[in-house]
Amino acid sequence: MRVLIVGGGITGLAAAHRLRERLGEDAEIVVAERSDRLGGKIHTVDFAGRPVEAGAESLLAARPEAIDLAKAVGLGDALVHPSGLKPALSLDGRLRDFPTGTMMGIPADPADVAAVADVKEGHGSDRPILAPGADMSVGELVRSRLGSEVLDRLVAPMLSGVYAGDVDRLSVTAVMPQLASALRRHSRLTDAVAEVKRPASGKPVFATVDGGLGRLVKATSAEARADVRIGMTVRELRQTPYGWEVVAGPVPDPMKVTADAVILAVPASPAARLLRGVEPEAAAALSGVAYASVALAAFAFDHIDLPERSGFLAPASAGRAVKAATFFSQKWPHLGTRRAILRVSMGRIGDEALLQSDDATLAKTALRELGEHLGQRIPEPVAQRVDRWGGALPQYAPGHPERIRAAREKLREHRGIAIAGAAVDGVGIAACIASGRAAADEIAAQLATESD
Fold this sequence. Notes:
The protein is an alpha+beta fold. The protein has three domains: 2-41 and 214-289 and 396-451, FAD/NAD(P)-binding domain (3-Layer(bba) Sandwich); 101-196, protoporphyrinogen ix oxidase, domain 3 (Orthogonal Bundle), CATH 1.10.3110; 290-395, Alpha-Beta Complex (Polyamine Oxidase, Chain A, domain 2). 34% of the residues lie in helices and 24% in strands. A seven-stranded mixed beta sheet has the order 8-7-18-19-20-17-21. Helix 2 (65-72) packs across helix 15 and helix 6 (177-183) packs across helix 7 (189-196). The longest helix has 23 residues, at 429-451. The two termini are 13 Å apart.
């Protein structure tokens, strides 16, 4: 029994690990990764003598999948949590406390955000905000129900930090599924938020691995015991009477790999290309997923005066390239205090021209704007690096969940094929792990039925 997983990011590795659990030692699990390393958007580097994330920064501990995987691969004792420092909003030339009691910046009580935004709570009919099966953009929802200031000053910076997205093009159902469910029962947005907002538990929301998230990649790969093929590009996918066949490798020297089942754990565009000859409707659904590109600049300082915060978010209305900054060494105390390390994030959907600047220009822009946000002259860093993530963050337009559901229904007609990853099930390491494990469960169940 052989399963081919296309994509060696955390989605594909989580799928491989789950398949090993479900199918046992006799199964052959092949992971094809076109780049020169595993991990995808997880990339830990040595920077200024510390392991620093050049991509995804942390695990969402508020949902179980990432924490469970870390424990399953032997990293439970290596999990560490951030300090209790709070993030700030950069508004009107100064840093302000980010209001508590919100869900992605949307308040359950308008009084909670009155210090930073003028709330204009509107109320339409007594019917629920969302009808069954309906969807809308986050921008339309918040602007119409709470006003533009809540959207521009609170919600947009949050979603820009997570998705680098445009609130008027992001689906409520995809971005906040629990809230969307409550919107089908409530006529007031604040009531819906109050229903689903988690009460403060005192438990950390985020976590990471001491030594870097790259350890999670390596441990998961090791525990999966898969046949990992680095630098292998899968170019064609065909269904045969006996399963599946892919064409991989360079065009002048192609190779064929057969498998009983295939999991596509790659971004939307390559997944759509591979599916075009297999299931055109599923390919069309994936080809409609747009992506935003971002750049991360990291700086190390021997001496810098930082406020007692974990970082800040900035609204697009500020007119700056920098949308967020993490005071990395303050947020993660396990790194020690020998040097201050900051990560600065730049790039929103439509900002591709900015990211075409060279590294020196991007670093200079980040330092200048960092000083403007902090109200001080930033000293010369002792180390710096810039990492670009082209097409890093999928953008879920209204109707995305329904389109993906329909695509999966069409793919189930073919058996032995599944899709997974951020392109379909949400950004973030925990979401990707959940998606990979779900795809593995589906494939394992199909293979078990066929074996019986």
